[in-house]
Specification:
Blueprint (H helix, E strand, L loop, with lengths): L2 E7 L5 H4 L2 H12 L2 H5 L3 E6 L6 E6 L3 H5 L3 H4 L11 E5 L1
Antiparallel strand pairs: 1-3, 1-4, 2-3
């Protein structure tokens, strides 16, 4: 299976240090979302840059973007809650 490195860009500058409570809750669910994939060995590494400007994920997948789409941060924006539509850029 191909290995991808994905850079996860936040929805706004300073996001890691300026999250509102509702955004923190969504990001907590977002962190839980890939845990089963990590347990299966499909996610090799995931973390936040030291300065908080971006996240990095190294994973095995046939389609890295398809794995990123269903996350809670994508589903949470229903017009009533915070929009956490950051960008994911993957290279394999």
């Amino acid at each position: 299976m191909p290995i991808f490195a994905c850079c996860i860009l936040p929805p706004r500058a300073g996001f890691a240090t300026s999250m509102r409570p509702a955004e923190m809750a969504i990001m907590g669910r977002r962190f839980e979302h890939p845990q089963p994939l990590h347990g299966q060995g499909l996610i090799r590494l995931v973390g936040l840059a030291e300065n908080g400007d971006y996240g990095l994920c190294v994973l095995e997948a046939y389609d890295a973007h398809a794995m990123a789409r269903p996350g809670p941060a994508r589903r949470a924006d229903d017009g009533r809650g915070p929009s956490l539509h950051g960008r994911v850029r993957c290279a394999g």
